[in-house]
Amino acid sequence: MKILGISCFYHDSAACLVVDGEIVAAAQEERFTRVRHDDNFPQNAIDFCLERGGTTSRDLDLVVFYDKPFLKLERLLESYLAFAPSGFRSFITAIPIWLKKKLWTEQLIRKNLDYKEKILFTQHHQAHAASAFYPSPYQEAAFLTVDGVGEWATASFGVGSGNKLEIKAELKFPSSLGLLYSAFTYYLGFKVNSGEYKVMGLAPYGMPKYKNLIYEKLIDLRNDGSFALHSEYFNYTVGLTMTSDKFNQLFGGLPRKPESKLTQKEMDIARSIQEVTEEIMLKMVNHIHKVTGHKFLCLSGGVALNCVANGKILREGPFDDIWIQPAAGDAGSAAGAALYAWYTYTDHHRIVDGVTDSMKGTFLGPEYSDIDIGVMLEKYGARYEKIQDSNELTMKTAELLAHGNVVGWFQGRMEFGPRALGNRSILGDARDPKMQSRMNLKIKFRESFRPFAPSVLAECVSEYFEIGRQSPYMLLTADISKNHRRQITGYEQKLWGIDKLNVIRSDIPAVTHIDYSARLQTVDPITNPLYHQLISDFYKLTQCPVIVNTSFNVRGEPIVCTPEDGFKCFMRTDIDYLVIGHFVLSKKDQPAFSDNEDWQKKYALD
Description:
Layout (H helix, E strand, L loop, with lengths): L1 E6 L6 E6 L2 E7 L1 H4 L9 H10 L9 E4 L3 H15 L4 H13 L4 H9 L4 E4 L2 H10 L6 E7 L6 E9 L2 E9 L4 H11 L8 H7 L8 H8 E3 L5 E3 L15 H6 L13 H29 L3 E5 L6 H10 L4 E4 L7 H14 L24 H10 L5 E2 L3 H13 L4 E4 L13 E6 L5 H9 L9 E5 L3 H4 L11 E4 L37 E7 L5 H14 L3 E6 L11 H10 L4 E4 L2 E4 L12 H4 L4
Parallel strand pairs: 1-4, 4-5, 6-11, 11-12, 14-20, 16-18
Antiparallel strand pairs: 1-2, 2-3, 6-7, 7-8, 9-10, 13-21, 14-15, 15-19, 16-19, 17-18, 20-21
């Protein structure tokens, strides 16, 4: 039985093909169109999924959409009426899009897919819940979904058991933890639905000076984690911005202008909203544990990408363990919608082993043969060395990393979700104190304060990090082990804000944030044997089982998908070497490269 899940028309459009309960393929539309967070109908992603599954749209048994457009329109109309006449500009901007496109989702699917069979529509948070529980390794578990907003729900919790999924309670719009965090993202001068990672990364540079103000003026928080926001401080209900004039006055001025210099004020605000978010999440999970009595918790929704909050839930929460959907945002809801139909609509049995999830390491996207890569390299007249033996290839790459080179690593199937996990990655030596600054400014073209993630051999994780479990999807933070920290002394202890950035805090400084934390990825030999072998070879050479792993893209650009995407990113940046398939390219050996695309202007803002 073939089921296609689709999510689109808000952000991060995606498609997922499930065949007899197995996720066969999944991808975001942005990877094909090169438009970051592309929200259009995911035709390219659908075409890939069908091709990968060896099928056509006419062979599909079900197509499932990830939310209910008419319920979402109902919420929009009721919100505009409730706040009328304010919001008229927003109304005349939004409604034509609904009348032309979003209300006709079923017809659009049938037309674009030439599909005549059954189309189902899940509710938004049903799809999130399904993406959280069904791929998890647990036979029974509680779940929590938290995001901006679906139709009406902004958060939900419930219980999954076998193939059954029951939502027990929901938090409703306009009270939204995701939109609260996004309001501060907007106020701090970052792009909503894209810059939330920056707020999280900026938070450790500040102090929570505004936390009490947030609780006093913006939010009424209850013991169960539910809350109400004071709407007069926000503009997202009917406006074209996230914050109101009253919000701006409360925090001492207009929102920061994008790209302007960050001050201690922004750092303190970031720390404050991050701590508020963590405290609300902890209240939620404590309540869920009390109500459900389950040992395990599954998480999804955009807020579940907040790895600092996730780490706190794991360490301080009441659950024995947690599992987080790696594509926790709306893209993952394409998978959730398809799985919901497989287990709930068609009532298929579900079998799990309690250990292994069904996301296949997120390696669910396209892959390319050496023939494909070779044709592309010849097109650009690239100079390369081909190393056919995989063991020789990984050792060569490890040697390049050990000598301080930055390597673009392009192998196997592309990852599904926002994280690059070792198939579309830029790699560096975690021991190099200058690596973070170099990769941020010369390769990623992004703010210098943003931390990088470590990839660590799964068998060595507890030696370098204070965590006793795996973190395969880079969705948890953990502190650097005390054995690998460097004592901060003298003037270094007195530094504030961004001045803390260049202080060496451990023997893996390139992946150590200023609070000694790291957003880590554990790598095991079963899920990704080639990447595991590479890090193992680096370990043999350096006695260090940790390398820097960041996504293979520049700021504002989606993660690379095709060999050509990878080659262009390599040539446009200061990446030293590209290891793509069995080909190794040195930057200094390449002929002059130019293309007609003004990529620096195109991706100037994220």
